[in-house]
Design brief:
heterodimer, A: alpha/beta, Beta Polymerase, domain 2, five-stranded mixed beta sheet, two-stranded antiparallel ribbon, 4 helices, about 25% helix, about 30% strand, flat, B: alpha+beta, Cytochrome-c3 Hydrogenase, chain B
């Protein structure tokens, strides 16, 4: 089995401009991964499957990960121009003074969605080789190339990622929701997912759910009152 | 046919499939002549679906023209729930994935966490894992064959034979762990309770009885004329497609691909045992039945060796951390050969008390990828058999 560095070199020799990066994994499992540029990912995946030395003919696991937007609190030096009374409180003369104040500002670094693939070789009995791809953001640019035409085992798994994370796989032959129903709107595995407020009866309401149940019933009562007033 | 006209489409319409040619689909199926199709929803409450699963089947006469599996009736987003609780709190929940074989689910999860933290496992615990894992494999294969035969119309007898044996194994589980099925047995770095010498004796006796059962089961079924007529040449799966579609477990080996993770990864202590990997020639339903029958015998071999060699010692690594368990940031993918195929857990830790990402690679779901390919052109009665030969549990498919 080649190391990730050797695999990276082999990919770069075979696919020009592949843009492969090594993502190291500090845990004792030492399963380092290769991050592919989405534009070249299909060609790279084809190479990994068809190359005689690697022969990664078996895609075991495909899954998504959500990395939400990160907020950073930054201390910024801001200069304010303030008018101040001069020569004591008795005199009513003021003067414009520049004052430097430290303020905390929140900087938002956009997050991304990630697809991870674990590859093995049945022919050579080695693995895993871990591939990753990132979308540009989490809202409107969420397309990644589908690897289903190369490894068919990705068919249901990419549908599941589309369903639960909202990554759109271009080139997937049958991209529909897998586990949720077709009319469902959101993507439940995202970390900022909030359950829709549509429950009428909650058998074991507690904590947050209890508050939301109360809110829900109050909203319904308000609507009924407004309806009666008309 | 007239009353079904509102639901029927022409053969030409149905064969406009949006799939790529790369998947070596079966060649064009000759239409029967009347040009009308019948759409049948098999499930979600069909007795042959082993749970709540639906197959939308389009039929031309008796033959299947299209089959679309529909999932999600048992979906509870186990992965999301696991992201909100501690690592250990997911252990009992893994019992509920494939509820026929909870031990192997525990094992796969424990293995993934042990890879994530670099945790060692004492030798006695490894032996206990192998013993319980192989007992699980035995009872899973026996009852899955029983279900398959029942779906062919042999109502009861073989299934009850299998369940009689399964009860003996579940009794062993109950004596050891306190529960027949929801065992919650493994821990990160070992097992929860130790087996007493008395339990070992009962286990040895039970395993000795399993050989007798396997003989009886084979006499009853292997050369049964009806079984051979119904299953040979039905639902053929080519080895290239099987590998490409990620099929694992007895399904893959029935197609003749020599890939058993117990041999490939040698996880645990499987390199110490002498056992063979049975392989099929044709990849049809009969081969899948035979592979399971033969694997039951190999499991007995492993069990006999493990019960003979099991050493004394601790069952839990003394350095294993239980309270305040927080793995260092990183990720790991651990997989085992579960009775249904490759069961894997992919974990990402961000250093917190609960996993950042917790993913289950379910063999039951991925083995269904090629269900349509196997069923196209077959009779609708054979769909039930082909589906039964995949051997799935819906708790794991929908998670």
């Amino acid at each position: 089995m080649k190391t990730v560095e050797e695999i990276k070199a082999a990919i770069e020799a075979a696919v020009p401009g592949a843009g492969v990066e090594i993502v190291s994994n500090p845990s004792p499992s030492a399963q380092h991964s290769l991050r592919l540029a989405p534009g070249q990912a299909f060609a790279v995946a084809k190479f990994l499957r068809d190359d005689a030395d690697l022969a990664l003919d078996f895609l075991s696991n495909a899954t998504g990960i959500d990395w939400p937007d990160k907020e950073f609190g930054e201390k910024v030096q801001v200069t304010h121009r303030i008018s101040k009374p001069v020569d004591g409180p008795g005199r009513k003369k003021t003067q414009i003074v520049e004052e430097v104040v430290e303020e905390t500002r929140i900087r938002v670094e956009p997050g991304w969605l990630e697809a991870v693939y674990h590859l093995y070789s049945v022919a050579k009995r080695h693995g895993p080789v871990v591939l990753r791809m990132r979308t540009i953001n989490r809202t409107d640019q969420v397309e990644l190339p589908s690897l289903t035409p190369i490894w068919r085992s990705a068919e249901f798994q990419e549908r599941e990622i589309f369903d639960l994370y909202g990554i759109v796989f271009t080139g997937h032959p049958d991209l529909r929701r897998l586990l949720m129903w077709d009319e469902f709107k959101d993507h439940p595995m995202r970390r900022d997912y909030r359950e829709p407020d549509d429950f009428e009866y909650e058998p074991t309401a507690h904590d947050d759910v209890l508050n939301r149940t109360l809110e829900h019933h109050a909203a319904i009562a308000g609507q009924e009152e407004a309806g009666a007033g008309e | 046919m007239t009353e079904f006209n509102s639901h029927s489409a022409t053969v030409a319409e149905m064969q406009e499939s949006p799939r790529s040619e790369h998947w070596n689909r079966p060649a064009h199926i000759e239409p029967s002549g009347d040009g009308e199709l019948l759409e049948v929803a098999m499930g979600p409450h069909h007795p042959s679906t082993h749970g709540v699963f639906r197959m939308d089947v389009a039929l031309d006469g008796e033959r299947v023209i299209r089959l679309r599996p529909v999932f999600g009736y048992l979906h509870r987003n186990h992965e999301k729930i696991a992201e909100g609780v501690s690592y250990l709190a997911s252990m009992p929940y893994t019992d509920r994935l494939d509820y026929i074989c909870p031990i192997t689910n525990n094992w796969a999860y424990a293995l993934a966490v042990e890879k994530l933290t670099g945790q060692a496992v004492p030798e006695r615990a490894e032996y206990l894992r192998v013993i319980l894992g192989e007992l699980t494999r035995f009872q899973n294969h026996a009852s899955s064959i029983g279900f398959l035969i029942q779906e062919m119309g042999a109502s009861g007898t073989p299934l009850m034979y299998a369940f009689r044996e399964r009860e003996k194994i579940l009794d062993l589980f109950e004596k050891l762990t306190g529960a027949r099925m929801m065992v919650n047995y493994m821990r990160f770095g070992g097992c929860r309770v130790d087996a007493s010498p008395a339990w070992m004796n009962v286990a040895r006796k039970t395993v000795a009885g399993l050989t007798e059962f396997a003989d009886e089961f084979e006499r009853l079924l292997t050369s049964n004329e009806i079984l051979m007529a119904r299953t040979q040449g039905v639902g053929i799966l080519k080895p290239e497609l099987a590998v490409n579609a990620g099929v694992t477990g007895p399904m893959l080996r029935a197609s003749g691909v020599n890939y058993d993770i117990r041999k490939v990864d040698n996880y645990g202590i499987y390199d110490r045992f002498d056992f063979r990997v049975p392989l099929g020639d044709h990849g049809d339903v009969y081969d899948r039945f035979m592979i399971r029958t033969l694997e039951m015998r190999e499991s007995i071999k492993i069990l006999q060796q493990a019960l003979k060699d099991i050493p004394d010692g601790p069952i839990m690594d003394p350095k294993a951390k239980i309270r305040g368990f927080r793995p260092k940031p990183g990720e790991a993918y651990g997989r085992i050969e579960a009775p249904k195929g490759e069961l894997g857990f992919y974990l990402i830790s961000d250093g917190g008390p609960s996993p950042y990402r917790y993913r289950i690679r379910p063999p039951s779901l991925i083995n269904l990828t090629i269900l349509e390919d196997m069923c196209l052109g077959q009779n609708v009665a054979d769909v039930v058999l082909i589906f039964g030969s995949v051997d799935i549990v819906l708790g794991e498919v929908d998670r």
